[in-house]
Backbone:
């Protein structure tokens, strides 16, 4: 049943691409309905999973290219389900936030749906070749989404984004063909790979290729620089997807393919990954602190928050890993919300993202509901208790403390810097007062407060949906941890966690 | 020798004979029967005749049960060589279909005849296991291509590039035949497998290595591998559409198949080694250098091109490099990946050339600068989508055929014994193919992101050309999703 989350968006996307309805209404309703269908499917399977004791559900297993041992193997465990749910939520909200796209709407929603379909495919593939195929399938729509519908330096941002992703996947490909070459009878079945014990020396050099390759897309420092430029250049829905979901593709691949299948390599390289993660956390937060462009603040905050995911992965213990997966979900929701507010609610009304200019506008008065949503979102992003970010980052920190207290302390400093840039952004963007601005600045701001459209229904709905998600997970984390932890305790991750659980 | 024997020989070479007869027939029909018809009708009937001959030949090959060797390795029919012949003829059909609508010459009969003759040469080439036969077939396949490249007599640039092609080509032929003569001097035989047997007892002396290198250099010219690629950009840019398609697709496939045979069989005793730690002279280091330089030069120079045809030419150099990777890494297992890659690459490049030529004809000025593609997605959405499919397949994006081809080639290159011998080369290849996405996206940026000027009309595409392009795009997609369609035909390719 879950496989339809792949087929529905892909076929709807292809249909839109070929039929090209002129009317934007048709395009956006088709997009919304197919995304809503995937959300329904995802929710249904979450409920189904909570009740069952099965840890790995096979959805489809057919020979695809038997000569090379390649299968069409779709399956899901708790981690996949969590991320499928995230993708479905982000997809629906992204469409709600792009309700006003009127330039080439059919193509916009077609590419959007193809991207989503590819993402679902990655999360559900249990054949490495299939996973890789979906992973690369998701690259190309990103380019056109950013280059055609984007804003600041969109062609540059789009190209940079795509080349980084493609170089990352090239590294993964090296690892994949190397494994293919050393296996006596070729197979790409992940469950078989997790059983086959590769020699330690082999793992030591293959692991960095695969981990760094996926890590590029997860925004791992120093390969993160595509993320801020790409997010800023992208149209709102695309930056919500990029930060919310596509970066998780990288982290998911690093965990599922890199660490689970090459545990010896993971153990050897974990301290290095930890350092890169911590540098990413602190660096992203500090750079976010001095940005002038509102969207760049959120862009760099993504780098910082994804650092927590990587730090959780590097901790190599159960609590750290489950925290990392929870952080993937949490950051997906929160980053989507922040980008939605900045890109859609603020930018399309104020027509600027410059924080100094925004300060003179007093947005809290003209669009109070946006201010409310952003306020809650930024608190969630800071990691306030009650929101999902708190639970996730707490788990990551505990996990990191177990493996190395230094990392936990440095990451704690990153959280402090995170509070600083979040409050600064909130202060400057919404809490400025128009009275304090000089007349010239007010003229520059183009008329100032009072004339902005109120927040529309789709925007409000999308915002509330995301806020609800982060609150539900924050108040009742077991809703997702009951999926994630059994998956991590399953035989698939045994090689990675066994010596440490004891 | 009795007449029965002649009949048996004819059975071996009947598919080639069909095409050779068709080549002559097309010439006579065009000269005698269609003399008074309008050029359009002559073009159409001539190409259709050629296509039917090709289809008949394919059909015959699929039905024929003749297998075995004729003479001392003159024609060796196995299921692999028959498949290779069929694939070559399919690519030739693509080139013929593009000729239907061409208007550049009143002498289409000659044009088609030469195209069919070149195809005949390529068909003989893939089943040849005799040094002399290989050389003769190479010449038979290439000489018509020199003429085809400059068939548009009104185009000065075409004359220049064809002359370049001819001069390089004849020099390369001299290299090949000289190298082969050295191999013959050591082995005392022309048959590939016997050459290998004899060479086994010969030490890797400098003279032998010179022979190996020279032969490979001659082949490198045929497949446009750097540094023997200098003719390619000019010819690709100026040759008539179907000639360019033939040179880039069919001729490449044939040359690659015979190069694979030659490396895997004749040079096996002196393959040498080119791994990271150790280099021993032989065919592997030569091929590794060819592959590396083709991938680097092809991809990096393509980055700077503004003419789309030249860009495709440099990317062709790079693609030749990817295929040579598997020849260097694992010649014994190279046939299946090389066949798959060269065939899907051929389909893709024919399609890409066809789209480019539609855009060129529309402008009237034969301008293939990237600017001419601005807003193509608005002017003809279908054509734009097909170009997207072709270029992304060249870049190696799933689920298109180019992706699986690359994966198969690189994977098989590492499955040598010992495994991972040429890892550095594969890493280079994968890195370079990441670079290539940049220039393919540059073209697609013009197609999809930029909008055309206000006065640009919608594109008019002749119906046969449109069908050909759609079929090719569909084939690239289908072969990417179900590569088994070709792979299952190759025995021993796993």
Residues:
């Amino acid at each position: 049943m879950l496989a339809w989350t792949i087929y529905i968006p892909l076929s709807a996307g292809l249909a839109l691409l070929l039929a090209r309805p002129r009317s934007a209404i048709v395009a956006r309703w088709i997009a919304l309905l197919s995304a809503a269908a995937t959300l329904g499917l995802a929710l249904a399977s979450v409920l189904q999973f909570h009740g069952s004791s099965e840890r790995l559900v096979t959805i489809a297993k057919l020979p695809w290219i038997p000569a090379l041992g390649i299968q069409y193997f779709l399956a899901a465990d708790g981690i996949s389900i969590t991320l499928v749910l995230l993708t479905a939520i982000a997809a629906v909200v992204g469409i709600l936030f792009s309700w006003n796209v009127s330039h080439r709407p059919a193509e916009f929603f077609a590419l959007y749906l193809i991207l989503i379909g590819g993402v679902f495919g990655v999360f559900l593939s249990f054949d490495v070749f299939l996973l890789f195929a979906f992973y690369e399938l998701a690259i190309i729509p990103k380019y056109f989404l950013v280059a055609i519908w984007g804003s600041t330096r969109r062609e540059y941002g789009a190209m940079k984004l795509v080349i980084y992703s493609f170089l990352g996947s090239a590294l993964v490909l090296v690892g994949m063909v190397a494994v293919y070459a050393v296996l006596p009878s070729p197979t790409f079945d992940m469950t078989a790979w997790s059983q086959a014990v590769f020699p330690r020396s082999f793992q030591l050099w293959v692991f960095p290729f695969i981990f760094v390759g996926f890590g590029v897309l997860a925004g791992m420092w120093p390969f993160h620089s595509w993320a801020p430029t790409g997010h800023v250049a992208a149209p709102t829905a695309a930056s919500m997807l990029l930060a919310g979901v596509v970066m998780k593709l990288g982290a998911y691949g690093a965990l599922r393919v890199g660490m689970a299948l090459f545990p010896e390599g993971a153990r050897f390289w974990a301290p290095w990954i930890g350092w890169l993660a911590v540098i990413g956390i602190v660096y992203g937060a500090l750079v976010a602190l001095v940005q002038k462009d509102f969207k760049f603040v959120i862009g760099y905050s993504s780098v910082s928050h994804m650092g927590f995911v990587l730090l959780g992965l590097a901790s190599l213990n159960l609590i750290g890993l489950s925290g990392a997966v929870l952080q993937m979900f949490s950051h997906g929701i929160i980053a989507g919300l922040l980008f939605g507010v900045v890109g859609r609610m603020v930018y399309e009304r104020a027509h600027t993202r410059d924080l100094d200019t925004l300060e003179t506008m007093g947005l809290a008065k003209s669009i109070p509901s946006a201010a409310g949503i952003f306020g809650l979102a930024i608190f969630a992003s800071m990691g306030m208790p009650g929101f999902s970010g708190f639970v996730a980052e707490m788990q990551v920190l505990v996990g990191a403390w177990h493996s190395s207290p230094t990392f936990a302390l440095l990451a704690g400093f990153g959280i402090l810097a995170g509070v600083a840039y979040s409050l600064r952004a909130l202060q400057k963007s919404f809490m400025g007062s128009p009275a304090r601005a000089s007349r010239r600045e007010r003229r520059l701001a183009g008329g100032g407060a009072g004339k902005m459209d109120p927040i529309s229904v789709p925007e409000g709905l999308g915002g509330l949906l995301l806020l609800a998600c982060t609150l539900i997970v924050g108040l009742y984390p077991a809703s997702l941890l009951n999926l994630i932890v059994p998956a991590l305790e399953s035989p698939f991750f045994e090689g990675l966690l066994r010596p440490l659980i004891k | 020798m009795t007449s029965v024997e002649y009949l048996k020989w004819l059975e071996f070479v009947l598919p080639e004979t069909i095409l050779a007869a068709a080549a002559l027939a097309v010439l006579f029909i065009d000269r005698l029967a269609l003399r008074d018809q309008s050029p359009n009708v002559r073009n159409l009937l001539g190409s259709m005749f050629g296509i039917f001959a090709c289809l008949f030949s394919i059909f015959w090959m699929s039905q024929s049960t003749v297998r075995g060797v004729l003479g001392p390795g003159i024609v060796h029919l196995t299921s692999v060589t028959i498949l290779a012949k069929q694939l070559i003829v399919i690519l030739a059909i693509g080139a013929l279909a593009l000729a239907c609508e061409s208007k550049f010459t009143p002498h289409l009969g000659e044009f088609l005849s030469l195209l069919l003759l070149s195809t005949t040469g390529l068909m003989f080439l893939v089943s040849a296991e005799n040094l002399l036969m290989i050389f003769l077939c190479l010449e038979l396949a290439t000489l018509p291509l020199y003429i085809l490249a400059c068939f548009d007599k009104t185009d000065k640039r075409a004359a220049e590039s064809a002359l370049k092609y001819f001069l390089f080509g004849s020099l390369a032929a001299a290299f090949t035949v000289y190298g082969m003569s050295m191999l013959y001097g050591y082995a005392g035989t022309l048959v590939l497998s016997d050459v290998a047997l004899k060479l086994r007892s010969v030490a890797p002396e400098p003279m032998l290595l010179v022979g190996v290198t020279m032969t490979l250099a001659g082949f490198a010219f045929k497949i446009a591998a750097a540094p023997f690629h200098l003719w390619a950009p000019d010819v690709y840019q100026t040759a008539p559409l179907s000639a360019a398609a033939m040179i880039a697709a069919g001729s490449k496939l044939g040359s690659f198949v015979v190069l694979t045979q030659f490396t895997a069989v004749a040079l096996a005793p002196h393959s040498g080694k080119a791994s990271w730690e150790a280099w021993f002279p032989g065919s592997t280091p030569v091929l590794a250098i060819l592959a590396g330089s083709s991938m680097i030069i092809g991809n990096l120079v393509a980055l700077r091109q503004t003419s789309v045809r030249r860009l495709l030419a440099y990317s062709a150099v790079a693609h030749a490099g990817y295929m040579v990777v598997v020849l260097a890494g694992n010649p014994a297992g190279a046939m299946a990946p090389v066949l798959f890659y060269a065939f899907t690459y051929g389909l893709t490049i024919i399609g890409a050339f066809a789209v480019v030529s539609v855009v060129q004809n529309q402008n009237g000025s034969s301008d293939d600068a990237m600017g001419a593609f601005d807003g193509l997605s608005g002017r003809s959405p279908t054509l734009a989508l097909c170009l997207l499919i072709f270029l992304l397949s060249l870049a190696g994006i799933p689920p298109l055929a180019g992706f699986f081809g690359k994966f198969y080639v690189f994977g098989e290159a590492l499955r040598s014994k010992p495994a991972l011998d040429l890892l550095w080369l594969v890493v280079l290849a994968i890195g370079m193919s990441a670079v290539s996405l940049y220039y393919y996206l540059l073209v697609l940026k013009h197609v999809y992101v930029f909008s055309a000027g206000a006065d640009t009309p919608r594109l008019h595409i002749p119906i046969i050309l449109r069908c050909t392009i759609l079929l090719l795009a569909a084939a690239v997609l289908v072969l990417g999703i179900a590569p088994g369609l070709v792979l299952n035909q190759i025995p021993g390719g796993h």
